Amino acid sequence: MLSRSAIQASRAAFQRRGMAYKAPLRDMQFLLNEVNDSAAHYEKLKHSGGDEATPDVVDMILQESAKFSENELAPLNEASDRIGCKQTGPNTVITPPGFKDAYLNFVAGGWQGLSFPEKYGGQGLPNSLALFQSELTATANWTWTMFPGLSKGAINTLLAHGDELVSEKYLHKLISGEWTGTMCLTEPHCGSDLAQVSTKAEPIGNGKYKITGTKIFISCGEHDFTDNILHCVLARLPNAPAGIKGISLFSVPKFKVEDDGTLTSVLNGATIGRIEDKMGCHGSPTCEINFDGSIGELIGTENRGMNHMFTFINTSRMGTAIQGLAASEGSFQASLAYAKDRLAMRSLRGAQNPGGAADPIIVHAAVRQLLLFQKCISEGGRAMVYDSAYVGDLMADAAVSGDKALAKKHDERLAFLTPILKGFLTEVGLEAANMGIQVYGGHGYIKSNGVEQIVRDVRIASVWEGTTQIQALDLLGRKIMLQKLKPINEHCGGLYKQAWSSFTSPASTKYGSIRSHAAQLAKVSAQWHATTYRIAAKAGSNKDAIGVASVPYLMFAGYVSLAEQWLKMESVAAKALEKNPTGPDADFYLGKIEAANFYFENVLPRTKGLLPQMTAPIASVMNMKVESFAPTQ
Amino acid sequence: MLSRSAIQASRAAFQRRGMAYKAPLRDMQFLLNEVNDSAAHYEKLKHSGGDEATPDVVDMILQESAKFSENELAPLNEASDRIGCKQTGPNTVITPPGFKDAYLNFVAGGWQGLSFPEKYGGQGLPNSLALFQSELTATANWTWTMFPGLSKGAINTLLAHGDELVSEKYLHKLISGEWTGTMCLTEPHCGSDLAQVSTKAEPIGNGKYKITGTKIFISCGEHDFTDNILHCVLARLPNAPAGIKGISLFSVPKFKVEDDGTLTSVLNGATIGRIEDKMGCHGSPTCEINFDGSIGELIGTENRGMNHMFTFINTSRMGTAIQGLAASEGSFQASLAYAKDRLAMRSLRGAQNPGGAADPIIVHAAVRQLLLFQKCISEGGRAMVYDSAYVGDLMADAAVSGDKALAKKHDERLAFLTPILKGFLTEVGLEAANMGIQVYGGHGYIKSNGVEQIVRDVRIASVWEGTTQIQALDLLGRKIMLQKLKPINEHCGGLYKQAWSSFTSPASTKYGSIRSHAAQLAKVSAQWHATTYRIAAKAGSNKDAIGVASVPYLMFAGYVSLAEQWLKMESVAAKALEKNPTGPDADFYLGKIEAANFYFENVLPRTKGLLPQMTAPIASVMNMKVESFAPTQ
User: Fold this and answer.
1) Residue A198: how many CB atoms within 10 A of its CB?
2) Burial label, A58 (beta-carbon count in 10 A; 0-12, 13-18, 19+)
3) Pairwise CB contact (< 8 Å): B344 & A25
4) Could you give the C-alpha distances from B39 to A116, B29, B43, in angstroms and in order?
5) What is the pTM of this model?
6) Are B591 and A628 an interchain contact pair (Cβ–Cβ within 8 Å)?
């Protein structure tokens, strides 16, 4: 491990490189207070208990999270990639330098419990605030963020499905951050196809079970942060039905815990086989865990494990969407600093920096296209995430107040939005991160400059928690076709309304682009809507129509969603500029207007290429015989 | 270094993983003998001296290159990434295990000289054959391939511009492979903007110069393969004009060489400052070289160094295009093997493998889309490269036979094609390589499975030898606008002819898709053609129109070029199938037909998204003030 002075040296080197992370607080405040009315939103949630999310509290939370991310987490990021995690025994994994101290500071500040119930020691604030906070830590240091992120998934799962005994036993420690949590799903042979899970759970009485089997790809499955770790494990009871309907969920701690929550020093038979050597994410250990008669409790109902685990999976999918957005933001910040500083070539319009050896590369159209794309994904992705986070708040609120129908309505909306967020933002987040290397040129390929690490770290985002391909099938197959198109009808209905409202808003008369953008949003929404019907009609005679359409459909949905956010943001910015065209925030608002122009003219047109792919002839994808792919190899 | 037995163990592990590389010889023969008539082509070149490229000789060369690549190079690839290169002193770099032995075998077989003149010990075969060979070694082991690849660039540069003294002094050893070559362009402050080169060359009489300065990013700048290394170095003579017109090119050996070519043991003042720690390409050392009064000779004419260096750069750009294609091919082979083997989920059509726990993932539409895209890029990219390679053959042939006008015509055509090959194939090659991770799922992120290495290795391809953005400006600005649109008029003329010929060919009546594809090719060619005029018109009043259009223009050009190749290939395949619908090659030809269907229905439509980007309002890219990109950061 690095000494304290080595960490300080690494921090100084990091700041010299000009890559100091700066939390985008102004943009978050724009979303909270201008695009949305968070004061009113949080006012509505007041009764859900806990601290009140007044503007002051929100501001304090963002400020403190920003400081922690900028000063504590960001400087650890490069060394965590270089040094990684080391396994030193069956139950010992050493995390990167500084990670543990940062985690203990995080816990001491009570941050893990921010959005969880007071009943278990949390602060009871809305989840949307916790997501703002996650983005800040994720951009500063993605792999560190995974540790508290996985605990959140375990907490949500226990809150939703755990009985009183299990919840009392574990939730206090998870919410305080004294212990962390993991999700143990995959096994060597089954990947995302959890119907093939073969880990066994044998009842031994007293509500206890013996768990035996091997799980792989367990993020943060072992570490040196805390005294204990709670594994949430999928396993099969004896005589359980085959396939997905025979899987149950169990709570399996690393060290045994008394029923009253007292920690023992007795290991529970869960050992680490190895940690994986990966492309990136070196700061978080990816573990193979062997459960050998480990004792656990049932979470929720027998054979409903997959249903319960989806609480965890959906938490992680939202976290992964943030991973995509954070990679874009991190790469954008580094690229922008570099593009302002680096001199190369002259502008096609003639020298823009005649006193210098060359012009800064930000003058070149092709470099600006990279930076503008990154800005569109970072800020537009942020707006997408927080839009959904508010739906999550409303759902939680309805559940607390006992309005089941309303909770279900919000839950369904969130279920519709989640695959778009996860699938789309990880794909475009990777693209935006890759652009960072392009802006840096050859220097981007050198590890010490940091932008290639962002690419390696985010590459897993479109794979884990269900690949983009699985998100796409979830969206089009499960969330739309199985619901008989109701969610898309409702969603597009909302988009038409938004487009019309922007089209007719007073600001649009001054900023002509808003009218044109509103018309474009209406058009792509209608294309999306109509194409859904076309696919449904084709699928009536051939289900493969759904498979063929799914990935371009998901991407189309993502670009429309970004258009929705950019139209909303530029409308607010236009109004603010009309009111005060030369105020201190004018550059900020002009940035929104110009980025929206870039988005609608240069990014949204990608939908024109996706449209024919969604309805490509089924045969053009399905007809190739397996033998014809590469017949001589 | 690994011992021989360790190398054997690594080779065995490699084969167990099922990632054994299989040279796509059938596909190469298809291009050589069916799509093109290589026998006639090579017959025409007979008089250029050297061995005759008869079908037997060609076949022997491909077979031997395949064996060498499959058996010698591919097994070294994984360890070269893991172990990398190590600098042990100012003039000592240890290459990865097995690299040197493989190189010595390559040299012993006379492979370095394959396409170079007999006069200097080469075999005088056409360059197109050497490019086929490069693809085989590049897919098996990219970083090993860089060593002989850079020598080729140095050889071409000396052949084209070196005087008799310099050529005699170095070419024999470079062509035999006893020495290797490098290109020394970039310096810490200048990247691709070589106008900023500040390395100094001071004449000391007798045709000798003292070279002083620091070069960075010198691939294979130091190694343990050979007794000497020849650096081709850009530097400024005293009183040279400022900028690009004041740069000259020098030959600077690592060890001093007598004028008669005798090697001395006197170092020449060129030392390695460091080797870079990179995202990938660990098998090839990227060196900082400090020239401290190193003695060299002028290559070519004073102050024409950039012109001369373009011979090297163009060789490297073609090599980099092959890097993109090779990454796609390597990832495709691994992905296909995995997709046939890995069981997950059931087909939307119902179980296709009812006896197994699940269906192999190749049944799923979204997985097939990944594999088909990889096939389209690999085989279509190969066809693009060899089409250009033939133009290169014809150019070399015309030069040898003294037909300067014809040589110039072919040279100009190659100059037009090169940025498309380099820019487009590296971008889609990276995309195809990334799909390998997607097919493997979480396992694709684990280093030992090999597909993530392909992504890391190829990521530099769209950066070095001029970024995609620079290729795009080269194509649209220099190669088209500066030539007053003549090259695009000629090129599109050829495309219209090809489309019409396929549209009216007899095979098209049986395979209806050919008619439709021919019509699509005609349409996108016309769009490309017409949009060029539109951009030219806009650029008349605002040069930024070129910058804004350039990258989508380059990508559009690439997709049209792939369409051209796929139409050609499916036409040949259709004819072969009509003749013999059930022969042993039927699966191979059906693979071409189905891949073409996939390409035209699922990939070419991307052009619809690129079209509006090419003519996006200039303001949508250029208007954002620098202060507005991220005003609060």
Assistant:
1) 14
2) buried
3) no
4) 75, 11, 6
5) 0.96
6) yes
